[in-house]
Fold each of these.
Amino acid sequence: MSRRPAHPARSVTAAAAALAAVGALTAAAAPGPAHASAHPRPAARHVLLLSVDGLHQSDLAWYIARHPHSALAGLTAGGVQYTHAATTNPSDSFPGMIGQLTGGGPGTTGVYYDDTYSSALLPAGTTDCAGAKPGAEVDLTEDLDRNKDSLDAGQGLSGLPGSILQMTGDPARLIDPSKLPVDPTTCRPLYPHSYLRVNTVFDVVRTAGLRTAWSDKHAAYDILDGPSGHGIQDLFTPEINSKAIGYDAGDWTKDNAATEQYDGYKAQAVLNEIDGYDHSRTHKVGTPAVFGMNFQSVSTAQKLPTSDGLTGGYQAKGVPGPLVVKNLDFVDRQVGAFVAELRERHLADSTTVILSAKHGQWPTDPTALTRIDDGPLLDGLNAAWKAAHPGSGDLVAHAVDDDAMLIWLTDRSPAATGFAKDYLLARSGTGNDIDGKAKPFTASGLQALYAGADAARYFHARPGDSRVPDLAGVAQYGVVYTGGKGKIAEHGGAHADDLDVPLVVSGAAAPHGVRVDGPVHTTQIAPTILRLLGLDPQDLDAVRIEHTPALPVR
């Protein structure tokens, strides 16, 4: 959608003045006491939150510089751009999205990744809880679906994929309870929303009597409902890792055109919601107070070596390649469509649009890529442990290694965590580079490895917490843990490529053309949403625990 050229961004000093003109900079200070006597006056009636997986602040800046009339340029010019925003560490989809909607990091929310482990829960399928040994995988991926091969997660819709908008807005009923970890206290399966330790923006907004909606990629995003289980009235979650109908590559992430088509379904759901309908456009329910979606297409464009005749990833350090550029164009068109629809429905003056990302992606320098198969590293660790401790079982209970290393152990003692740390830091071997050629690595590809209590402190968690990893590895720049050669990027780690994401607050209550260069965090989005709606950020558990301030928007 055509936009006038963006005005030059103003300095931080000018930004402060502009923000002060809009309202008091209450967000610049730590929040006051819980349940303050007076809530701020609502500045917006609606907040549209858009999260673009993989998008870096550098990508947004690169795109706007070359497309000054784009929708993304218009969005940025019409609001506040925070140029040094950081997402959660680990920089995975679940902690990243949960951080945006709770105000807390993994040490507070208890969610470290989309596939983790808890030493306090019981394995899925446990029925005799009195005699069961604690320790269970907590899988928040497509594996929870009743049918993970189907776009509707097993609902049984006919006419897929065209009928996908008829998918239920209550995906919890599409989760197979036999695949869930079991709560030892109740001896019942623990649904994702009950696994979350704190409430969400959706919980608070629902309690205030306002409408909520969201669109994301797995039924397991039921977790965003919050502990109440009812935070989101309309949760649309077509399964991205299902078989992509009409494509030969596999699931919707294996062909970038398929990912765009998939994202298009969620974009249509948002357009329907702007128009005052539910996601399916079946029921007239009113435009939600808080709603939005997650985009996947930029992320797959960064990960796939090639797709649709275009080269994926980056051409040089920070320079998007053809496939990534194509998907920046795609996201720009969707944002333009949302903005145009808000104007058409006379909602532009009462809606604040927030643009950010769950995570970035690395490496943005293709020459730095080192692919390492983590399987032999973990197998070797188990073998070394058993050799040193005859009669013992595997030391590794669970591991998640993308471009970071998160490991949970069956023995959480200092001796065991120290053993694992020493073993991994002593491993060298050979991986492969961007062209698939041999490339040596040292220290298991790690720059640093935190073990035991140090790992807990690294995540700002209590040592011994049942969910915190026993080892947290920070990878050397460019390392991606994969056994193949079909992936050129990943996320999850603590490098700038993973953490440095865009953050734009535009529309109602936002001054135009403001640039703030000071550091902020995406966890500040949650209290900002509530403040925009005239609700109390202190009603968020994580905001009270972490003293998370709102962004300086008003």
Amino acid sequence: MNFDFNNPYLSTRLPVFARNVVATSHPLAAQAGLRILQQGGNAVDAAIATAAVMTLVEPVSNGLGSDAFCILWDGKELHGLNASGPAPKAWTPDYFKAKYGADAATPPMRGIDSVTVPGAVRGWVAMSDRFGKLPFADLMAPAIDIAERGYLVPPVVQGKWAAATPLLQSQPGFAQAFLPWGRAPEIGELFRFTAAARALKAIARTKGEAYYNGEIAEAIAKFSKEQGGALTVADMAAYQPEWVKPISRDYRGHTLHEIPPNGQGIAALIALGILEKFDIASLPVDSVQSQHLQIEAMKLAFADVYRYVSEPSSMTVTPAQMLDDAYLASRARLIDVNKAQDFKAGNPVKGGTIYLTAADESGMMVSFIQSNYMGFGSGCVEPEFGISLQNRGHGFSLKAESPNVVAPGKRPFHTIIPAFLTKDGQPVMSFGVMGGNMQPQGHMQTLVRMLDYGQAPQTACDAPRWRFNAGLEINVEAAMKAETVQGLRDLGHHLDVINDSYQDFGAGQFIWRAGEPSVEGYVAASDPRRDGLAAGY
């Protein structure tokens, strides 16, 4: 594709052109992945090493207690990995109602009863076993070094660390792990995480078995019991990630691939399927009408996703029904080009996250995401091994009629979604955007910019974004043109201009295949909304 590399936006970065590339939101992590590539590893090896380092250098978003998802091109075909963990066997609606009251609608947002089985570490092992080249222990080495020696806390991470501290400092283990000074770190202050170094060494030595069947599993279960939680060694040992076939939708001659439910990636596919019914390219790229159509398509997508998406076995409709072309055309007809609307779910039945991507000159491309969900997740940190536990259990419902009602061993609705783009069955781009429900919105907005308007990946990355929240409520970045902001308000959007782009608009990483990987290589983009880096050689 012939991109326009002229970048009109204020927050510009230079794209990286290379045959071997890693892109993520912290330079030390990107450099770790590049180091593994230079040692003879492939893109999967680089992604695992990068992910391990990210648990340390961006603890505000992920940790050794995270879940993860991956889409990867092995050089011949596409594979998906769901490494999200299930509910403990003791979890039922009655379990929560007995502890939190009959009126409780969801498991708690924080604390030990928001913690499901962490899936990321076993996801790393599954990727290494199936596609890696180097010994698994080698992939942990950069993270172990950083955990022991420490790193200087950068501005974006420090800001979120400080903001989370008042909310989480009373959670068990949080202050010991993340407030060794008795406060959040200052910018440029050295943070060491020796407990996590112990965990990483055990994970490296046992290829993850210590985490699920050994000393780390026992420590997590003991910690959970001490805090009144339900997670057991048996819950940990029973967990296995799942290799899945990505779901897809064609758009403008390309095919977007997402992980199937229990994730929300289908929202991006629905929104693009609706947008395909409009001639977006005929409208100026940053115009009111272009942005309005994208917002309305996204709102329609979320209406169905929040109504129907859950663990596949409990869904009342299938992804195929939700992506049916005739159904999406009927949804597109609901859009009024002159008015913002609050859409409800249709009937498809007929009658605090990090993202990274890596690619190598053999053609392997990896789209990987892992998260503790809401910032530091549950706020609970197992002290011996520094396991910062996610709070994915809060994504369950306690309402019997919900497809996402909690049940023993069931996976909750998930927000983290890697993405992958192909054309005519061949790889084009591995990419992703961070930030809760911003993720499918970012997928759609950046793809429209690239495929409808020919903007280069870095330009699409730098452009101002909007974020749909609920009803008619929209947030937009302060860099959006004033006339576009006013025009959207005139159409009825309840719109707030936000300066805190890290908090509200995510950040993305993109690797576009420029040609034959060993010859032309890739074009990589890294989002300015975090202190990220695309690095290559």
Amino acid sequence: MRRSILTATGAVAVLALVAACGGGQTRGTGDSTAASSSDDTFTFVTNTEIVTEWDPALSYSNEIRAMENVYESLTWYDAATETVEPRLATDWESSEDGLTWTFTLRDDVTFHTGRALDATAAKEALDRTIAKAGGAAYIWDAVDSIEATDATTLVFHLSYAAPVDLIASSAYAAYVYDTEAAGDGGDLDAWFAEGNEAGTGPYAVEEWASGQEYELTLGAYDGYWGGWEDGQYTTVEYRVTPQTTTAWQLLQNGEVDFVETLNPEIFDQAESTDGVATSETGSFQNLLALYNTADGPMADVRVRRAVQLATDTAGLVDALNGSGVAAQGIVPDGLLGSGAGISTEQDLDAARDLLAEAGYGDGNPLTLTMTYAQGDDNQQLYVTLLTSALAELGVTLDAQPLQWNAQWDQARTGDRQDVFVMYWYPDYADAYSWFVNVFRSSDEPYFNLSYLADPEVDALIDELPALTATDTDAAQAAYEQLQQRIEVEDAAASTLWVDTYQRAFRDDVQGYTDNPAYPNVVFVHELSR
């Protein structure tokens, strides 16, 4: 649904290389029972491609669903208890000034390559991620150096205080991996691009068929430090089914085990369907409509404000029927910076006046372009309601549903859309991710797809990490000021709603919980059947 940073090579070229080099059997729609032919296979269905980037240093997109089962980080964030928990590190401590953090690593972990994990290997992985400076590597900006003082001790030296225990639990750019996986003299970048992995997690990659319905298969890693018990799933299959109704039918037929995305009507059915269990959990994920502030008709702030006023956010939330809640700004509840109290009521008369001021109306019709996620029924609902509202104002909305890579590539390198719709969620349990990624100016747009270039916004964003570590009251005030500036004064975006995760899965799947800190991830090793 969101994001991928591909470095020097363009996304199309990388995907072409991946398709040519990726090993494994290619499966099509004819093999409809393959995923659930064995009780020890867990089949996960999503509406979008799974892998956009194989390099754990650069991964920043859909592949989180699989990566969190293949790779591990030093720590793990439990959103239910709001605490940082051990993962590859067993314990950690910070100096009083917050500038030195010391982690003790497990001594019984091996990579899927067979190499033993020690502090030197962990340092090498994190140093490489920082040096690559792609994806979410910005999370380590406070780090001056990392030191392996002995086999199980890893020390972080910081230039300013930062919560490294929380940062180390990030869903992106915090993975520990074997930097020697490509062998002596091997090109690790190219090795990863071929669909290889070098994690420590419970599952390893078995097959990858880019662009196919059955895209990715993982198998149990026998040497996993967490061990294995009877009743756990030893195979994980990721299946891409763009249509929600088709995914729901597959679940009812027993062909799949878990459906990630449902619309409200189907979720209502699922709650009363024999053999199906459901889960409903609040999230840190919101849907953003990003308005083109740089060129085209929406470069005029009056047009952007008119589109905001044409958007019936209250009606959208009502129509979502429980799958989303009203936003009060860019930052969702549960994170520092939430509670900004920003909302917009639909006002078509005021929108019509703004459009007239901008020169649109009789004799000068306006057409706006939009891109949004193919196969997402909730986004389609937004498109339908906004199309109708704009039509009342004499505005035509040309909305195009696309798969993520096509949508993202067009926004960065092709004909820029007037409205770009995408989900966003934090890289770790902190609101900074929205602002540094989506709204800070950059010479080449990655996720700043409103193309906002506001020096005052940039300056406030740059203050956030230090404020968060030293003065949470000041950080809260800065977050509120930023949201007012971006969403109200600049009218660069509308936060349409905050998702409530509604999942459906077979009722023989035991142990499933949704963790909003790792959106759309099923930690399959925690399940039993």
